[in-house]
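Translate sequence into structure tokens.
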Amino acid sequence: DLCRATRDTVVEGTESSFGGTPTEVRLSAFWKGVALAPHRTLVVGRLDGIIAGALQLVRPNPLTEAGPYVAEIMTFFVAPWARGHGLARMMVETAEAVARGKGIRILDVSMRANRRRAIALFESLGYARWGEKEHYAFIGGKFVAGLYFSKSLDVPLP
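Result follows.
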């Protein structure tokens, strides 16, 4: 289900992390790697019991000088056939709860500047836009702009 939802989103043009339409083998290896990485948490959204979206909550190495207090949401998507059911909001709220439980204080996310629905979602959840990058990703033979957002989770330091 996860590979199908990912491929449907890539083909539709919303998800660009894979540099073209990935094969089933490549997608399966990618998601298995995510599941095995101790600093990554995979959050999935289901519609009628079928995985229809996902995101990664990526935490830093706990030995970094900056400390393990900032995490990033990555590879965030909902398959085209599952949009409009609140899965995106549910997945982000779940990621925030997991992050809080792990002592994360700040969540960051970046996305292409043309992802209007995703931008509106993150802004509605209290994420503040702090930057723009003109050459964010290279898609279809040209650079596209990207936006950067952060949210304080108000978790006290240990």
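Note: Helices lie at 2-12, 24-36, 87-101, 116-124.
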